[in-house]
Every structure is written in structure tokens, then in C-alpha cells.
Amino acid sequence: MRVIIAGGGTGGHIIPGLAIARALQAKYSAEILFIGTARGLETKLIPQAGFELRLVTVGALKGVSLAKRAQTILDLPRAIFAAGKIISEFRADVVVGVGGYVSGPAMIAAILRRVPTLAFEMNAVPGLANRLVAKFVTASAVHFDDTKKYFRNPTVTGVPVRKEFLTAPAKHERERPTILVTGGSQGAKALNRAFREAAPELLKRVPGLRIVHQTGDRDFTETKAVYEQTGTEAEVSPFIADMPATFSRADLLMCRAGASTVAEVAASGKAAIFVPFPFATDDHQKRNAQVLTANGAALLIDESELTPERVANEVSSLITNQKRLIEMGAAAKGFSHPGAAEEIAEIVARMAQRKKN
């Protein structure tokens, strides 16, 4: 079985793609080829993982100037042709689109060549690339039940996450109450600022509260200095390498609502306060967070309402209510899909087998 995985740009697209690739290799000895662009994280992460990467030139259509959008549209036929050439040369049995700029042209090229296609959509609302091909793909794998309506032949598989999120030991009841604050590996300026300003009041309300704060590189120095100036005890770092272990120590998370983060929260069964990135394409982070909040698994604070007072009120109210934390964590766990990568790999294998028959 020969499978192309197309997509990239951010870790949110690449990491699930790599998980699917590993599952296909482990269970079906599949030959894997990735298609990406030269400007995404795929140029680093995919070769590091030991997979071959071919590049296609394609620009953005969302969040760019009119001139750049026009250029992308003009270049699109060339990108589809380039992706199609790769698909033909590799003799792909199935093409899997995991989102990102290159996913659209690659999936269109596969559809035109009658190569079976699987669209993987992590967000509650599909991104542009997947919206373009949603009704033409052979099948689709989605994170949320509500997302099925956008796609042809959908299956709710969830998002592959590192198994360590699923197997991390539970926090001991007698440990200090702990909150983990993270805006992702790059940090989130508004979240960092609001929380560090709320921290002194929080510690008055919740004596002994342990604060673990991943700031990202840009805000690390300033955040650490503010904590020191206010006499706030906190574990501050620009980046946390072992995030699953850090999740396991926390009673509550305060974080963004990208699809991978939401999936990790669910896998860990943790209560969370989501602060969606307000400029995410199609406001997809807010839509992701709303799915969990509607089911009692999380709280949502819009960044426009993110004040130190609001942070102090919401965090202190939650973290002192052990019963509610447990209920929210259990509700979040209901959105967990431990075998997501393997289930997606199984769908791909069935598609490849039907093509050969």
C-alpha cells in the first residue's frame, strides 16, 4: 500500500499526519510520502521523523492581501499539476489531506486522477482546503460529530495525540492545587499578561496554589520579571518539553483552543478554561471550544473579555471546587479517541483495498 499524506504549515497539521503515517507503517507496512510546502514546519519535522517529503509551491487564500490572494489563484493550476505529477510518479493508492495550504491542490489532483482520497479535519468547522474538496472526497475523518455534515462519507475518529497524554498517572489528591497556563509553544501575549497580573490576587484567594506557566520565547523574560516583582511563586519557562507529564500534575488548564490542544485536554481528562485565538481562520478555535463548553467540559473566555479580574474570579472559583473539576474532566474525557491514528489508518487501508479490487 502506497499512501501520500498532504498538508502542513503548522504542527497542528503535521503531528497528526505523522501519527497516521506511523500507524499505517506499523499495521500495514505502508510506503509513505508527504507533500508539503517549503515554508512550513514540515521541512523540519517530517525529515526528522524519517519520512520523505516532496514540495509544492502554493500560497494562501485567507488572511492575506488581495494581491497575494490573486497570485495564489493564478498559481493554483500549477500547484495542482505539480501535486498530480508527484501522485502519479509515486503511484499512490490513497491520498490523505490533513489540512494546510498544500492539502487542497493535492486533494484536487488526486480527485481528478480518480485516486481515492481521505480528508482529515481536526476542527469543528473545516478549513478552506477541506471545504473545497469536502463533497468530492472518497471519505473523511473528523474530530467532532457536528463536523460530519460538511463531508462525504464521514467517520468520527478524533485527533491522534501522543499516547503519553492518555497514560499519564492521575494527580495525587493531597498535592497542591495546580494550574497550567499555556498559549502553545509560541505563547499568547494577551493570556500571559492577564494571568501574571491576576496571579497575586489568585494566591490570596487560593493559598498554596501552584502556578506552572509556559510563556513562549517572546514573553518569558517579561513574565518572569513581573512574577519576581510581585513576589509571586511560579514555575515559569518559555517551553515545556514534557507536556503530558505537566498536564498530569494540573487540576486546571488555561489555554488556547487549537484542535490539537483540545484533543490533548480531552485525552488527559482535564478541566480547562479556553481563551480562543481571536484571529484564527474562520474563528475555528472558538468553535472548537464551544463544543466542549456546551457539554460542560470547559469554560470559554473571549480574549476581548480577558481581564485580570475575570481570570482571578474564574480560576479561583473552579480550582477550589474539586467536584466540578472532576465533572468537567470526565466530560472532556468523553471527547477522547485513544485509537484515532489506528482507526484512520484502517479507513485508508480499506480504501486502498477497494481500489485494487
Keywords, please?
357 residues; Rossmann fold; alpha/beta
Mind explaining what this structure looks like?
It is built from 14 helices and 13 strands. The chain is α/β, with parallel strands linked by helices. The chain has 2 domains: 2-160 and 339-356, Glycogen Phosphorylase B (Rossmann fold, 3-Layer(aba) Sandwich), CATH 3.40.50.2000; 164-333, Glycogen Phosphorylase B (Rossmann fold). The strands form 2 sheets. The chain has a 7-stranded parallel β-sheet with strand order 3-2-1-4-5-6-7, with helices on both faces. A 6-stranded parallel β-sheet has the order 10-9-8-11-12-13, sandwiched between helices. Helix 8 links the parallel strand 9 and strand 10 (235-237). Helix 1 crosses helix 14 (340-356), helix 7 packs across helix 12 and helix 10 packs across helix 13. The model has no long low-confidence stretch (mean pLDDT 92).
Question: How are the secondary structure elements laid out?
Answer:
Layout: E1 2-6, H1 11-28, E2 31-36, H2 42-48, E3 52-55, H3 66-90, E4 94-97, H4 103-112, E5 117-121, H5 128-133, E6 139-142, E7 154-156, H6 163-167, E8 178-182, H7 189-205, E9 210-214, H8 217-229, E10 235-237, H9 243-249, E11 252-255, H10 259-268, E12 271-274, H11 284-293, E13 298-300, H12 308-319, H13 322-333, H14 340-356
Parallel strand pairs: 1-2, 1-4, 2-3, 4-5, 5-6, 6-7, 8-9, 8-11, 9-10, 11-12, 12-13
